[in-house]
């Protein structure tokens, strides 16, 4: 809890803080849904164009749901190998469990595909 995560979509948030794990567990891993508070967001310009409407939705202090896509804690794969990333990262979700942004700007873990986050995987430029 209270972990800081990078937001790797174009929703307007930059840094988020985990405030709740949405399963009966003490911690969350890749593919788990969490509740976050936006700690740092991109500034909202006065002349909002139609392409940046999703960026206009988020401000500092907003509470949203997100899915974890990368963790610094290593993840064991079925073949016995381990995968670990340099940071903790998430993608923000809307009320229909779909990504809030239209692009994912970094690597995501392949475990998302097995946890039925196929839309997030399809938006990502690279899956590891």
Task: Tell me briefly what this model is.
With 128 residues, the protein is mainly beta.
Topology, element by element:
Blueprint: E1 4-7, E2 13-21, E3 33-41, E4 63-70, E5 75-76, E6 82-83, E7 89-93, E8 107-108, H1 111-114, H2 118-123, E9 126-127
Parallel strand pairs: 1-7, 8-9
Antiparallel strand pairs: 1-2, 2-3, 3-4, 4-7, 5-6
Using brief descriptors, characterize the structure shown.
128 residues, mainly beta, globular, two-stranded antiparallel ribbon, 2 helices, five-stranded mixed β-barrel
What do you see in this structure?
With 128 residues, this protein is mostly beta strands. The protein has helices at 111-114, 118-123, and strands at residues 4-7, 13-21, 33-41, 63-70, 75-76, 82-83, 89-93, 107-108, 126-127. The chain starts with a strand and ends with a strand. 32% of the residues are buried. The mean pLDDT is 92.
> pLDDT below 50 for ≥5 consecutive residues: which ranges?
none
Strand order of the largest sheet: 1-2-3-4-7
Strand content: 25-35%
- Spatial gap, N to C terminus: 25 Å
In DSSP terms (H or I, runs of 4 or more residues), the helix count works out at: 2
Structural class: mainly beta
């Amino acid at each position: 809890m209270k972990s800081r995560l990078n937001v790797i979509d174009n929703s307007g948030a930059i840094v988020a803080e985990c405030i709740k794990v949405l399963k009966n567990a003490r911690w969350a891993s890749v593919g788990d849904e969490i509740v976050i508070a936006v700690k740092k967001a991109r500034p909202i310009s006065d002349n909002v164009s139609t392409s940046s409407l999703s960026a206009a939705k988020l401000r500092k202090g907003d509470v949203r749901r997100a899915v974890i896509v990368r963790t610094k804690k290593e993840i064991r794969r079925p073949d016995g190998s381990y995968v670990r990333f340099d940071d903790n990262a998430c993608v923000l979700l809307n009320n229909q469990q779909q990504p809030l942004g239209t692009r994912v700007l970094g690597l995501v873990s392949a475990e998302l595909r097995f946890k039925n986050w196929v839309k997030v995987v399809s938006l990502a430029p690279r899956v590891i």
